[in-house]
């Protein structure tokens, strides 16, 4: 099964992608992982991407597309994959279609995780991270520490990352609406989009997605 996962920042794409990929026994291909792997391994695409990033410039679509295509050609993706963070704009979506067509493949579904915008802002802006260990994550409303501003695990100071500030979150949402949301209409024209309400517990959202995929299978 070949799936694209889309949704705004804070919709839980990374979490759902991991669960869905495990349930479907297909690799989870995330843009972030692709960049990290290519840069750490010093591949030609990784070197090119790093040169743009070091200069403070956006990495061109051609580099991202190249990394995604290389990953989809690996043996573990022969029977399917779940794409998370790619495609992120119409140009990348068209490139993916072209790649699949040239290889005699098709997408099975585009899962659109739907979360109200104000919930997204609340989810992200409420995050608090431990300065000692970034894996210790709390939330000002949903997962409060026992003592305000103090990590329950190690006693470190909890802080709000600049990326998680409300004004930054709203800018990220604007970018999502402008760049990524148009691919939903693009895939609706191909009758591929399955909208999944993404409020609720992680396992509840995963079940909704799995049920929807099974109905469409």
Fold-level CATH name of the domain at 2-115 and 180-216? Rossmann fold
Q: How large is the share of residues in beta strands?
A: 5-15%
Instruction: Report Rg.
Output: 18 Å
Strand order of the largest sheet: 2-3-1-4-8
Task: Give the name of the CATH architecture of the domain at 2-115 and 180-216.
Answer: 3-Layer(aba) Sandwich
Give the topology string: H per helix, E per strand: EHEHHHEHEHEEEHHEH
Count of strand segments: 8
Name given to the CATH homologous superfamily of the domain at 2-115 and 180-216: P-loop containing nucleotide triphosphate hydrolases
Give the class-level CATH name of the domain at 2-115 and 180-216: Alpha Beta
Q: What percent of the residues sit in helical stretches (DSSP H or I)?
A: 40-55%
Mean pLDDT: 94
Q: What structural category arises from helix and sheet content?
A: alpha/beta
